[in-house]
Design brief:
Oligomer: single chain
Low-confidence stretches: none
Number of helices: 13
Mean pLDDT: 88
Helix content: 40-55%
Protein backbone atom coordinates (compact mmCIF):
# COMPACT_ATOMS: atom_id res chain seq x y z
CA UNK A 1 0.00 0.00 0.00
CA UNK A 2 1.25 3.46 -0.92
CA UNK A 3 -0.55 5.17 1.97
CA UNK A 4 2.01 4.22 4.66
CA UNK A 5 4.83 5.10 2.26
CA UNK A 6 3.38 8.58 1.76
CA UNK A 7 2.94 9.08 5.48
CA UNK A 8 6.62 8.27 5.93
CA UNK A 9 7.47 10.58 3.01
CA UNK A 10 5.60 13.41 4.72
CA UNK A 11 8.56 13.65 7.13
CA UNK A 12 11.30 13.38 4.48
CA UNK A 13 13.19 16.56 3.58
CA UNK A 14 14.57 14.98 0.39
CA UNK A 15 11.15 14.03 -0.94
CA UNK A 16 9.82 17.41 0.19
CA UNK A 17 12.30 19.11 -2.13
CA UNK A 18 11.34 16.89 -5.09
CA UNK A 19 7.59 17.31 -4.62
CA UNK A 20 7.83 21.05 -3.97
CA UNK A 21 9.82 21.58 -7.18
CA UNK A 22 7.42 19.63 -9.41
CA UNK A 23 5.33 21.97 -11.63
CA UNK A 24 2.19 19.89 -11.13
CA UNK A 25 2.32 20.23 -7.34
CA UNK A 26 1.08 23.82 -7.04
CA UNK A 27 -2.37 23.24 -8.63
CA UNK A 28 -2.88 20.19 -6.41
CA UNK A 29 -1.84 22.08 -3.28
CA UNK A 30 -4.23 24.90 -4.16
CA UNK A 31 -7.05 22.38 -4.08
CA UNK A 32 -6.44 21.55 -0.41
CA UNK A 33 -4.79 24.70 1.00
CA UNK A 34 -6.62 28.04 1.05
CA UNK A 35 -3.48 30.12 0.57
CA UNK A 36 0.01 30.78 1.84
CA UNK A 37 -0.72 34.28 3.18
CA UNK A 38 -3.45 35.52 5.51
CA UNK A 39 -5.12 38.10 3.25
CA UNK A 40 -6.16 35.72 0.43
CA UNK A 41 -7.14 33.16 3.03
CA UNK A 42 -9.53 35.66 4.62
CA UNK A 43 -11.30 35.94 1.26
CA UNK A 44 -11.79 32.16 1.29
CA UNK A 45 -13.22 32.32 4.82
CA UNK A 46 -15.68 35.05 3.88
CA UNK A 47 -16.75 33.14 0.79
CA UNK A 48 -17.47 29.99 2.80
CA UNK A 49 -19.38 31.77 5.55
CA UNK A 50 -21.45 33.69 3.00
CA UNK A 51 -22.57 30.28 1.68
CA UNK A 52 -23.74 29.30 5.16
CA UNK A 53 -20.73 27.14 6.00
CA UNK A 54 -18.76 27.39 9.24
CA UNK A 55 -14.96 27.21 9.25
CA UNK A 56 -12.07 26.10 11.41
CA UNK A 57 -8.69 27.59 10.53
CA UNK A 58 -5.34 25.79 10.71
CA UNK A 59 -2.05 27.64 10.24
CA UNK A 60 0.18 24.94 8.81
CA UNK A 61 3.36 24.18 10.70
CA UNK A 62 4.51 21.19 12.74
CA UNK A 63 7.65 19.29 13.78
CA UNK A 64 9.42 22.53 14.57
CA UNK A 65 13.04 22.51 15.71
CA UNK A 66 13.45 25.59 17.92
CA UNK A 67 11.45 27.82 20.29
CA UNK A 68 11.62 30.77 17.87
CA UNK A 69 9.51 28.81 15.38
CA UNK A 70 6.99 28.11 18.12
CA UNK A 71 6.71 31.82 18.85
CA UNK A 72 6.26 32.58 15.16
CA UNK A 73 3.42 30.07 14.95
CA UNK A 74 1.85 31.57 18.08
CA UNK A 75 2.07 35.04 16.55
CA UNK A 76 0.51 33.81 13.30
CA UNK A 77 -2.53 32.59 15.24
CA UNK A 78 -2.72 35.85 17.16
CA UNK A 79 -2.74 37.69 13.82
CA UNK A 80 -5.47 35.35 12.60
CA UNK A 81 -7.61 36.05 15.66
CA UNK A 82 -7.10 39.77 15.15
CA UNK A 83 -8.21 39.49 11.52
CA UNK A 84 -11.24 37.32 12.28
CA UNK A 85 -12.56 39.38 15.20
CA UNK A 86 -13.98 42.29 13.11
CA UNK A 87 -16.01 39.85 11.00
CA UNK A 88 -18.27 39.25 14.01
CA UNK A 89 -18.85 35.62 13.07
CA UNK A 90 -18.38 34.28 16.60
CA UNK A 91 -18.54 30.50 16.85
CA UNK A 92 -18.99 30.20 13.09
CA UNK A 93 -15.21 30.58 12.90
CA UNK A 94 -12.78 28.76 15.12
CA UNK A 95 -9.09 27.91 15.10
CA UNK A 96 -7.47 24.48 15.12
CA UNK A 97 -3.98 24.25 16.56
CA UNK A 98 -1.32 21.55 16.53
CA UNK A 99 0.63 21.68 19.75
CA UNK A 100 3.76 20.42 17.96
CA UNK A 101 3.71 23.78 16.16
CA UNK A 102 3.91 25.45 19.59
CA UNK A 103 6.95 23.47 20.73
CA UNK A 104 5.44 20.33 22.25
CA UNK A 105 8.24 18.08 20.94
CA UNK A 106 11.08 20.33 22.12
CA UNK A 107 12.84 19.98 25.50
CA UNK A 108 10.35 21.10 28.11
CA UNK A 109 7.80 20.93 25.32
CA UNK A 110 4.67 20.39 27.40
CA UNK A 111 5.12 23.62 29.35
CA UNK A 112 6.35 25.46 26.26
CA UNK A 113 3.31 24.43 24.22
CA UNK A 114 0.95 25.39 27.04
CA UNK A 115 2.62 28.80 27.39
CA UNK A 116 2.37 29.46 23.65
CA UNK A 117 -1.17 28.21 23.11
CA UNK A 118 -2.70 30.01 26.10
CA UNK A 119 -2.57 33.54 24.62
CA UNK A 120 -4.06 32.15 21.40
CA UNK A 121 -7.01 30.70 23.28
CA UNK A 122 -7.35 33.99 25.21
CA UNK A 123 -7.40 36.00 21.97
CA UNK A 124 -9.93 33.65 20.42
CA UNK A 125 -12.21 33.94 23.46
CA UNK A 126 -12.03 37.74 23.30
CA UNK A 127 -13.16 37.52 19.66
CA UNK A 128 -16.02 35.15 20.57
CA UNK A 129 -14.35 32.17 18.87
CA UNK A 130 -13.35 28.68 19.95
CA UNK A 131 -10.08 26.80 19.62
CA UNK A 132 -9.69 23.05 19.06
CA UNK A 133 -6.50 21.15 19.89
CA UNK A 134 -5.68 18.89 16.96
CA UNK A 135 -4.46 15.41 17.82
CA UNK A 136 -1.19 14.22 16.30
CA UNK A 137 0.79 10.98 16.64
CA UNK A 138 0.14 8.78 19.67
CA UNK A 139 3.26 9.90 21.55
CA UNK A 140 1.65 13.33 22.07
CA UNK A 141 -1.81 12.17 23.18
CA UNK A 142 -1.32 12.30 26.95
CA UNK A 143 0.36 15.71 26.81
CA UNK A 144 -2.33 17.10 24.50
CA UNK A 145 -5.17 15.91 26.73
CA UNK A 146 -3.40 17.27 29.81
CA UNK A 147 -3.06 20.69 28.17
CA UNK A 148 -6.72 20.47 27.16
CA UNK A 149 -7.71 19.92 30.81
CA UNK A 150 -5.68 22.94 31.91
CA UNK A 151 -7.14 25.19 29.22
CA UNK A 152 -10.69 24.08 29.97
CA UNK A 153 -10.39 25.33 33.53
CA UNK A 154 -10.52 28.86 32.10
CA UNK A 155 -11.93 28.19 28.63
CA UNK A 156 -14.36 25.25 28.86
CA UNK A 157 -15.29 25.64 25.19
CA UNK A 158 -11.82 24.50 24.06
CA UNK A 159 -12.31 21.59 21.68
CA UNK A 160 -10.68 18.17 21.68
CA UNK A 161 -9.84 15.89 18.76
CA UNK A 162 -9.70 12.09 19.05
CA UNK A 163 -8.64 9.48 16.49
CA UNK A 164 -10.59 6.26 16.13
CA UNK A 165 -7.62 4.17 14.98
CA UNK A 166 -5.98 4.36 18.41
CA UNK A 167 -6.93 1.54 20.77
CA UNK A 168 -7.30 3.99 23.67
CA UNK A 169 -9.81 6.31 22.00
CA UNK A 170 -13.04 4.67 23.21
CA UNK A 171 -11.92 5.25 26.79
CA UNK A 172 -10.95 8.82 25.92
CA UNK A 173 -14.40 9.39 24.40
CA UNK A 174 -16.08 8.26 27.62
CA UNK A 175 -13.96 10.76 29.56
CA UNK A 176 -14.63 13.61 27.12
CA UNK A 177 -18.37 13.14 26.48
CA UNK A 178 -19.35 15.55 29.24
CA UNK A 179 -21.59 18.60 29.29
CA UNK A 180 -20.14 21.49 27.30
CA UNK A 181 -17.31 19.39 25.88
CA UNK A 182 -16.67 19.79 22.15
CA UNK A 183 -15.09 16.69 20.59
CA UNK A 184 -14.06 16.19 16.97
CA UNK A 185 -13.86 12.52 15.97
CA UNK A 186 -11.56 11.61 13.07
CA UNK A 187 -10.10 8.32 11.85
CA UNK A 188 -6.45 9.39 12.15
CA UNK A 189 -3.86 10.35 9.54
CA UNK A 190 -0.47 9.40 11.01
CA UNK A 191 1.52 6.20 10.60
CA UNK A 192 1.09 4.39 13.93
CA UNK A 193 2.54 1.06 15.15
CA UNK A 194 0.36 -2.02 15.45
CA UNK A 195 0.65 -2.12 19.24
CA UNK A 196 -1.25 1.17 19.65
CA UNK A 197 -3.51 1.47 16.60
CA UNK A 198 -5.74 -0.55 14.30
CA UNK A 199 -4.05 -1.18 10.95
CA UNK A 200 -7.03 -2.51 8.99
CA UNK A 201 -9.39 0.09 7.52
CA UNK A 202 -12.46 -1.94 8.47
CA UNK A 203 -11.34 -2.09 12.08
CA UNK A 204 -10.71 1.68 12.08
CA UNK A 205 -14.23 2.24 10.74
CA UNK A 206 -15.77 -0.06 13.35
CA UNK A 207 -13.89 1.77 16.08
CA UNK A 208 -15.13 5.08 14.63
CA UNK A 209 -18.73 3.92 14.98
CA UNK A 210 -18.17 2.72 18.54
CA UNK A 211 -16.66 6.09 19.47
CA UNK A 212 -19.45 7.93 17.67
CA UNK A 213 -22.06 6.03 19.70
CA UNK A 214 -20.34 7.12 22.91
CA UNK A 215 -20.18 10.77 21.89
CA UNK A 216 -23.73 10.93 20.55
CA UNK A 217 -25.11 9.34 23.73
CA UNK A 218 -23.05 11.64 25.94
CA UNK A 219 -23.65 15.20 27.11
CA UNK A 220 -21.06 16.92 24.91
CA UNK A 221 -21.12 18.37 21.43
CA UNK A 222 -19.90 15.80 18.84
CA UNK A 223 -18.09 17.01 15.73
CA UNK A 224 -18.01 14.33 13.03
CA UNK A 225 -14.84 14.68 10.99
CA UNK A 226 -15.42 12.37 8.04
CA UNK A 227 -16.05 12.32 4.29
CA UNK A 228 -17.28 8.70 4.37
CA UNK A 229 -20.95 8.55 3.22
CA UNK A 230 -21.65 5.48 5.35
CA UNK A 231 -20.27 7.06 8.52
CA UNK A 232 -22.17 10.28 7.81
CA UNK A 233 -25.41 8.32 7.48
CA UNK A 234 -24.67 6.45 10.72
CA UNK A 235 -24.02 9.75 12.50
CA UNK A 236 -27.37 11.11 11.30
CA UNK A 237 -29.16 8.00 12.53
CA UNK A 238 -27.40 8.13 15.91
CA UNK A 239 -28.38 11.77 16.20
CA UNK A 240 -32.03 10.83 15.69
CA UNK A 241 -31.85 7.90 18.12
CA UNK A 242 -30.37 10.10 20.82
CA UNK A 243 -32.91 12.87 20.29
CA UNK A 244 -30.32 15.39 19.15
CA UNK A 245 -31.44 18.45 17.23
CA UNK A 246 -29.47 19.35 14.11
CA UNK A 247 -27.66 22.13 15.96
CA UNK A 248 -26.54 19.76 18.74
CA UNK A 249 -23.77 18.21 16.66
CA UNK A 250 -21.92 19.08 13.49
CA UNK A 251 -20.12 17.64 10.50
CA UNK A 252 -16.62 18.70 9.55
CA UNK A 253 -14.88 18.19 6.22
CA UNK A 254 -11.60 19.30 4.71
CA UNK A 255 -11.38 22.27 2.39
CA UNK A 256 -11.56 21.11 -1.22
CA UNK A 257 -12.90 17.61 -0.56
CA UNK A 258 -16.50 16.50 -1.30
CA UNK A 259 -17.75 20.05 -1.81
CA UNK A 260 -21.13 18.89 -3.12
CA UNK A 261 -21.65 16.79 0.03
CA UNK A 262 -20.77 19.77 2.18
CA UNK A 263 -23.48 21.78 0.45
CA UNK A 264 -25.99 18.94 0.70
CA UNK A 265 -25.61 18.59 4.45
CA UNK A 266 -25.81 22.34 4.92
CA UNK A 267 -28.98 22.47 2.81
CA UNK A 268 -30.53 19.77 5.01
CA UNK A 269 -30.03 22.02 8.03
CA UNK A 270 -26.94 20.39 9.49
CA UNK A 271 -24.10 22.35 11.02
CA UNK A 272 -21.33 22.00 8.41
CA UNK A 273 -17.82 23.20 9.25
CA UNK A 274 -14.92 23.32 6.78
CA UNK A 275 -11.36 22.70 7.97
CA UNK A 276 -9.36 25.39 6.17
CA UNK A 277 -5.55 25.14 6.26
CA UNK A 278 -3.23 27.92 5.11
CA UNK A 279 0.43 28.86 5.25
CA UNK A 280 3.70 28.07 3.51
CA UNK A 281 4.45 24.86 5.43
CA UNK A 282 1.93 22.80 3.47
CA UNK A 283 4.03 19.75 2.60
CA UNK A 284 3.18 17.38 5.47
CA UNK A 285 -0.52 18.22 5.29
CA UNK A 286 -0.55 17.76 1.50
CA UNK A 287 1.12 14.33 1.66
CA UNK A 288 -1.37 13.12 4.28
CA UNK A 289 -4.25 14.16 2.01
CA UNK A 290 -2.74 12.12 -0.83
CA UNK A 291 -2.27 9.15 1.50
CA UNK A 292 -5.90 9.26 2.61
CA UNK A 293 -7.52 9.37 -0.84
CA UNK A 294 -6.27 7.00 -3.56
CA UNK A 295 -8.01 9.01 -6.30
CA UNK A 296 -6.00 12.11 -5.38
CA UNK A 297 -2.79 10.08 -5.26
CA UNK A 298 -3.37 8.46 -8.66
CA UNK A 299 -4.15 11.81 -10.27
CA UNK A 300 -1.05 13.41 -8.75
CA UNK A 301 1.30 10.57 -9.74
CA UNK A 302 -0.02 10.47 -13.31
CA UNK A 303 0.42 14.22 -13.63
CA UNK A 304 3.91 14.03 -12.14
CA UNK A 305 4.96 11.33 -14.62
CA UNK A 306 3.43 13.10 -17.62
CA UNK A 307 5.15 16.40 -16.71
CA UNK A 308 8.40 14.52 -16.23
Amino acid sequence: MLGPVLLAASRSDAIRRIVSAAPVTRPMVDRFVAGELLDPTMSVIQGLTERGLDVTMDFLGEDITDPAEARRNRDAYLALAESLAPLGLGARTEMSVKLSAFGQALPGGHDLALANVTPVVEAAAEAGMNVALDMEDHTTTDSTLAILRELRERFPQTGAVVQSYLFRTEEDCHALATEGSRVRLVKGAYKEPADVAFQDKREVDKAYVRCLKILMAGDGYPMIGSHDPRLIAIAQELGRRNGRKLDEYEFQMLFGIRVAEQERLRAEGHQMRIYVPYGTDWYGYFMRRLAERPANLVFFLRSLVSRG
